[in-house]
Each structure stands twice: as C-alpha cells, then as structure tokens.
Amino acid sequence: MFLWEYLFTWNGLDHRPQILQLITRSRLHPFQRLNDYVLEPLRRLFFTSKVHCKCQILACLTELLRNCVSVEWARYKETQSNEEGTSSLSLFPVDSEMFPALQSIQELVLYVDRLCVVGLQQEDGHAMLMHYTLGFFELVTQLQRRFDLPLVHAPSAPIVYMAMFDTNALTVARICAIMCGFRQEVTSLKQKPPQEESCGFTSSSIRNFNNCILDICDALWRCKAFSSGKNEASIFKVPRAVVKQAGIDSIGDSFSLYNHIALQGFAHTFLQKSLPPGTPITPRPRSRQSTLDRSSYLDFLTSQGLEGIQGFISSFIKVGKSSTPCSSAPSTASSTTTTGSRT
C-alpha cells in the first residue's frame, strides 16, 4: 500500500493534514500490521512534536476509530455473512481476510489510551490535548449503544484523575459524563443476549472503574477526600500523619462541589444569587451544604453547560433522607456494574 510505504519516509511536515486524513480512511487490519505500518510512524511523530501536532494525531486516531466502527466493522460482518452463504449487500465484491476484528479494535483503543496518558504527562495536562483526549473517549463510550459493537472500555485511571482535578470546569463535567457513558455501555451490553465475541468487560476493568467512581463521589459530593476509607486503591489513600502535616482545615472539602478549584467561580456566582444581599460569601463548610441547597447548585451548573456533573451525581449517588452530605452514599461496586441501578 502506497500510504504505508510513504509513512516510513514521511518527515511529519509535508502535507500533514492530507496524510492524516488518508490515515483516517484506512481499512481494518490485524492490529500488529496496523501498528507496524501506521501507528508506529504516528507514535514517533507524536512524541517528538509540539502539542498542536499531538492534537492533530489524536484527532486522526479518533476519526480512524470512528471509521473502523461505523464502516469497517459493518464490512467485516458482511464478509462473515458471505462466508456463510448470505448474499452480499455490496455492488462490488471486496476481498477481505478473516481475523479477529473486534480484538483489533480493542487493541487500537488500548493503544490510544496509553498514548494519551503519556502525552498528557509529557505536556503537563495541556488543555487542548485534554480536549482531544476526552473527545476520543466520548466516542469510545458510544461503541455499544451507537454502533452495536460489543466493546466497552473506560479511560484509564491517570486520565480520569487528571481530568477530575483539572482547573477547567468543562473538563471536570466531561469526564463525569464519560464515566456515566461507560456505565450505560455496561448496562446495555448486559441487557443483550450473551455474545460469542465481546471485549473490555472484565472484573479488573470494572474494579478500576468503581475505584474511580468512589473517589469522585468522595471528593465532589461526600466531602470525604483523604478520609481513611476501606478503598485501598483510592488515590486519596494518604497516611494520616501526612494529612495532618499539611495543616489544612477540612481537607476533605478541598474538592467538593463548592471548593473544587475549577468550580469556585461558579459557586461564587451561585451564592451571590441565592444568598440574601449583604451576606458574606465564604467557602461552604460541610454543615451548611444541605441536599436541597446542593440540588439547586447542580441545576445552576447544568444551566452553565456543565450537565455532566449533575448526570454523574444522579447516576451514582444515593441521596439519603437526612439533609447532610454524609448521608449520601455512592452506589456500591456490585450495583454499579451488575444491575446498573442505584442502591
């Protein structure tokens, strides 16, 4: 194939938009072949280029995945039908080899996931690179429901936490929406008849997903970041001595809905509108955060285009009868992944 041969001598500058556009239309191949001829040249360019080029490559890989699941996956299934004697829907016959196409797509998703992790670390969580990273995973969390592809994949923990603790409120809202999308993907897959071929739905991936969910719930809603909970895999699992040494009062509130650095501006505006005139506006301590108060605040965030946060809270939080945040508990791991309903 001419494009594959050219990529080995391409300097990464000449006709870059056109070359990347051609790559997005590549046929579905076994992953090892795709990696050797397409992904490896892109990887070298990715890690030796500035952030703008990295974003172009991520956009290219996102469109490559979209082409694989919307066009090539249907073509692959049609080829399988032809092998079984079913008439072809194509006007012209297409020669196609048989290989585990679903596994190839899964390995492509895992490859881009790892690429995003290293790229974000290399660029110190650059906002534009984070935007394209989340754009890729917004597509990934639609594969089952939109394209009928039996593949579910949640972003790896480093991506979730980098987005969750970002200073951009839209980034926080988007990662919350992505986590909700993954849950919907799992629920949708479990409601369908068992399939011979499915990828990504493993106990390990579910466990990692639930660890992230518990951490986000503890930080945003329950005001229990850095608490000594039972979740050994928590990112907040810090020795008590270290927490005390920090000397920060109410450290568990640091990433709450009102105090999260990305949401403080929205909290200030909301409190200005909701509190009586002349009331001093200060960070909201846990004792003053009633469920009704925070519900109104979530509605305000939704009106500002941050609907992902409210969607996350409504999907994963069971609000108790008491008005204090401590009475609100996140869905357990088993209920989140097995039944798809709140406890």
Low-confidence segments, given as residue ranges, are 321-327, 332-343
Q: What is the H/E order?
A: HHHHHHHHHHHHHHEEH
Main sheet specs: 2 strands, antiparallel
* Coarse morphology: globular
* Estimated helix fraction: 55-70%
> Total number of β-strand segments?
2
Q: Count of helices?
A: 15
The largest sheet has its strands arranged as: 1-2
**Overall SS class:** mainly alpha
Overview in brief:
By secondary structure, this protein is mainly alpha-helical. The chain has 15 helices and 2 strands. The model is unreliable at 321-327 and 332-343 (pLDDT under 50).
Describe the protein's topology:
Elements: H1 2-7, H2 16-23, H3 31-47, H4 51-83, H5 101-122, H6 127-140, H7 143-147, H8 157-164, H9 169-191, H10 203-220, H11 240-246, H12 264-274, H13 291-303, H14 307-316, E1 317-318, E2 329-330, H15 333-339
Antiparallel strand pairs: 1-2
